[in-house]
Amino acid sequence: LQGVLIELYGKVEGFKACIKLPDGTALEKQFAGKEGRIEIPEKQRRLWTPDTPYLYDMTVMSGEDKIETYFALRTIEIKNVNGINRVCLNGESIFLHGVLDQGYFPEGIYLPAEEAEYDRDVLRIKELGINLLRKHIKIEPDYFYYVCDKLGMLVMQDMVNNGPYSFIKDTAIPTLGYKKRGDRTGLCGKRKEIFIKHVENTIKQVYNHPSIVAYTIFNEGWGQFESDYMYTYVKSLDSTRLADSTSGWFAQDKNDFDSEHIYFKAIEVEPKTRPLFMSECGGYTMAVEGHYYSKYNTYGYGGSENAAKLTEDILNLYEVMILPAAPKGMCGCIYTQLSDVEDEINGLYTYDRKVCKVEKDKMLAMAKKLQEAVKC
To answer: Residue 213 in contact with residue 156, Cβ under 8 Å?
Structure first.
């Protein structure tokens, strides 16, 4: 997709494309070669957003072969708005109001019992005003991304790290505030080769999904190497999305964001030239009797005894650290996390998704404030 031009590429000479337009009519075009372009008439253009996730149905035919697919019209970019660099969806400022999504389920760990659970996960989190999932170090089945396309959920896709990791050096010390610039680790040639190939394959896998708006390359130094080079490489594979080359710390020079992880407490932050992205924060805990994996696995921060207190703690974080910074250039935040997992009870939902641990109306009200804050 380039603007309103649909570019089609095939392996055979001669094919026909048919696009269903919003008014119910069809736009058809026959092509003699292996590629071609179709322009969507201005009156038939519908932009994809989280609130209006319009998808165009399309059929491509060649001889007796027929493929049914879909596409959407949307852009994501960073541009200067009234002197501040902001993330813009379809040319308009948007606050990336997200949660960390590790994609774990009690029935199958890496997979839910049925595909429809992906639909329910997206709808649950949209009820809280969330518009983005940071898919954390996991590639989902294609159906998950289709659900995000269909229901209107932005996705920030993490790359899967394959390098060395130290809890003390890569998590504990930086979390306490001792963060250094520069690549944390080095990888041997084989590991680097595997990681780079996996990055390429990941982007190929998710490229055509309109819900994908950004990539995370390295998270908290895990397997990090030559992050400036990897930023350039990712952009060469896909220049249409944003990239967070060093999520949390160990930053070098090239990144679309100033990416920070801040846990334990809410502090005042000041955006600089690049959009400030709070790529992880929060992680407040609340155990719900009968709905956690184990009473001995309770990782997280703080501790709330009920939904009212947990909601109060989360909203205080937004009021102190996020909301005041949004008008100045903060472009988004990722709260940890969508649901509890085996050894963490810091989700907005329980691991089995049967209990919402926060007050929905108050969370939704905060989401509206955040979107208003980046419009000024």
So the answer is: yes
Q: Which residues contact 307 (CB under 8 A, 6 or more apart)?
A: 286, 356, 357, 358, 359
Residue 26, pLDDT above cutoff 80: yes
DSSP summary character for residue 362? H
The 10s digit of each residue's pLDDT in 132-182 is 999 999 999 999 999 999 999 999 999 998 888 888 888 888 888 787 777
Separation between Cα atoms, residue 217 and residue 235, nearest integer Å: 11
Nearest CA-CA partner of 130 in 109, 148, 112, 150: 148
Segments in 152-305 forming alpha helices (H): 167, 173-175, 189-206, 227-237
Cα separation, 365 vs 375, in Å, equals 16
Residue in the block written with tokens 């100033």:
258
DSSP 282-343: E-B----TTSSS-TT--BSBS--SSHHHHHHHHHHHIIIIITTTGGGTEEEEEEE-SB-BTT
Task: Round to whole Å and give the CA distance between 197 and 347.
Answer: 32
What are phi and psi for residue 206, nearest 5 degrees? Answer: -105, 0
Pairing verdict, β 35-39 and 5-9: antiparallel
- Please give the model's pTM, rounded to 2 decimal places: 0.93
pLDDT at 34: 76
**189-206 vs 227-237: helix crossing angle, rounded to 10:** 30
Distance CA 286, CA 359 (A): 13
Helix (H, G, I), strand (E, B) or coil at 259: strand
Gyration radius from the chain CA atoms: 21
Distances (CA, A) of 374 to 56, 96, 159, 269: 29, 10, 28, 16
User: Got the DSSP string for 164-175?
Assistant: ---HIIIIIHHH
CB-facing half-sphere around the CA of 358: CA atoms within 13 A = 29
* pLDDT at residue 215 greater than cutoff 80: yes
